[in-house]
Design a protein that fits this description.
The protein has about 70 residues and is mostly helical. It has one domain. The protein contains two helices and no strands. The chain is elongated.
Length: about 70
C-alpha cells in the first residue's frame, strides 16, 4: 500500500473522528446513528494512522506530498 493521505488530510480525519466520538459520548447522536458515527470515526482513525484510504485510488485522489527527484 502506497501512502495516499497527506498530513492535512490526516488532521482533518482525526478531528472529525474526535467530534463524532464526543457527540456520541455527550448523547447528541444516539441509537443506530450513533453506532454508525462510531464506525465512521473508527474508519477515519485507522485510515489516518496507516496513511492509506482505499477509496482514493478509485477516484484517482492523492493528497500525499510527492517526493521530488533530483
Amino acid at each position: 500500500m502506497k501512502a495516499n493521505i497527506g498530513s492535512t488530510d490526516k488532521l482533518v480525519r482525526l478531528g472529525l473522528a474526535i467530534v463524532l466520538i464526543v457527540l456520541f459520548y455527550k448523547e447528541v447522536i444516539t441509537g443506530t446513528l450513533g453506532i454508525i458515527g462510531l464506525v465512521v470515526a473508527l474508519l477515519l482513525t485507522v485510515t489516518s494512522l496507516i496513511s492509506f484510504c482505499p477509496l482514493y485510488p478509485l477516484f484517482k485522489i492523492n493528497t500525499a506530498k510527492k517526493k521530488e527527484k533530483k
